[in-house]
Structures are given as C-alpha cells and as structure tokens.
Design goal:
The structure holds two protein chains of two kinds. By secondary structure, chain A is mainly β. Chain A is built from no helices and eleven strands. In chain A, the strands form two sheets. In chain A, strands 2, 4, 5, 9, 10 and 11 form a six-stranded mixed sheet that branches. In chain A, strands 1-3-8-7-6 form a five-stranded antiparallel sheet, with no helix packed on it. Chain B has no helices and eleven strands. Classes of the chains: A mainly beta, B mainly beta.
C-alpha cells in the first residue's frame, strides 16, 4: 500500500467551476498535511497546510482533513485557467514528506 | 526573505561520473531536505539534515549522500551516475520542527547520458 494516494486524473473542469481533489494516507499517526501546486517544469509551491480535523479556507482554496478516515481533500472554487497544474498531496512524518502521485487539473476557458 | 536557492540549475553528466548539488535554505531555516522527482516514481524523499545531522534517510542506494554545513547550506552527492539518476533534484527548507512546512527551491535538473 502506498503511503499517500491521490484520485487519478487528469481532471478537467470549466472555468468558474469547483475542482475537487482527494487524498488518502496510510500512517494513522500522521499529523501534518500539505497541498502543493506544481506547474510544468517548475518546483512545488505550497498552497495549504492543515493540521486539525475540519476545514481550512484560504481564498478560493479549502482544505479538509478527516483523521479518522485518513483523508485529506482540496477544493478549488471559481477555478481559473491559471489553476491548471498538478496538485500534490503530502504528508509529513519523521522529518520527511511523502507525496502522492499528483492530480493534473486542466481548467477549460 | 530570499527563497531557497539551488545550484546549478541544469547539469549534464555521463554514466560513471559523480555530481555535487548545492542548496542554500531560506535565511533562518536550519532544516534542509532533498527529494528526487522523476516521471515514473514521482517525488521521493532522499534525506533530511538539521544542524549538520542527518535525521532521516529515504530508500536510496549508498551512491546518494549528503551533508550540511554550519551555515545550514547543504550539498548532495551522487557517485557512479546511472542513466536512471536523471531527474529533477529538489531541495526544501523549513525552520526546525518535524511538522514545519517545507519550502522548495527551483531544483536542479540532472541529465545522465
């Protein structure tokens, strides 16, 4: 079983719609969770960190964490063409980040 | 604050050679981590250093090594390069704790011929 798994993509959404990204993790004791955005040819850029159960909102982005279900999600509201990228879910344990394979999102104008 | 910097940005080597990559963390950050990113394997953890001590190491062969200096700058070395070592090597820095957010540098793209 992989440490971090993300819903397979690619995900194509029309401009203005909501993009929903999901992630599950295997290590029940994980405490820190992150979403990174990576444009083609660039390095990962932090979008959101979340540590407690529930929702955390930052602008058009909302992260949700459910530790009992070992599940993290990211919602992108009012999707824009500039949101087209690969989104990486990451879980931090023992001083390292474990990443999912990423979900590629394309926002259609 | 200036971000994480990595040098060189691009590198071409041949099989059997060795390579050293450098990373300067964000000012004040004492933890530096290294990751390898390939299309097939995704982002994989190599090792993490804090105050010149390696705190964790990923599942890579001994050809991959690293170190951290007293000013928190870090280097990683790959000896006896193989074609499969072609990848984007990313460095990330964070303040101190194990839960801290990591911020990535631009990466070094290594091509092994």
């Amino acid at each position: 079983q992989k440490e971090v798994e993300q819903n397979s993509g690619p995900l194509s959404v029309p401009e203005g719609a909501i993009a929903s990204l999901n992630c599950t993790y295997s290590d029940r004791v994980s405490q820190s969770f992150f979403w990174y955005r990576q444009y083609s040819g660039k390095s990962p850029e932090l979008i959101m960190s979340i540590y407690s159960n529930g929702d955390k909102e930052d602008g058009r982005f909302t992260a949700q964490l459910n530790k009992a279900s070992q599940y993290v999600s990211l919602l992108i509201r009012d999707s824009q063409p500039s949101d087209s990228a690969t989104y990486l879910c990451a879980v931090r344990n023992d001083y390292k980040l474990s990443f999912g394979a990423g979900t590629t999102v394309t926002v259609r104008a | 604050k200036a971000g994480v910097t990595q040098t060189p940005r691009y590198l071409i080597k041949t099989r059997g050679q060795q390579v050293t990559l450098s990373c300067s963390p964000i000012s004040g950050h004492r933890s530096v981590s290294w990751y390898q990113q390939t299309p097939g394997q995704g982002l994989q953890f190599l090792f993490e250093y804090f105050s010149e001590t390696q705190r964790n190491k990923g599942n890579f062969p001994g050809r991959f090594s690293g170190r951290q200096f007293s000013n928190s700058r870090s280097e990683m070395n790959v000896s006896t390069l193989e074609l499969g070592d072609s990848a984007l090597y990313l460095c990330a820095s964070s303040s101190t704790g194990s839960a801290e957010t990591q911020y990535f540098g631009p990466g070094t793209r290594l091509l092994v011929l």
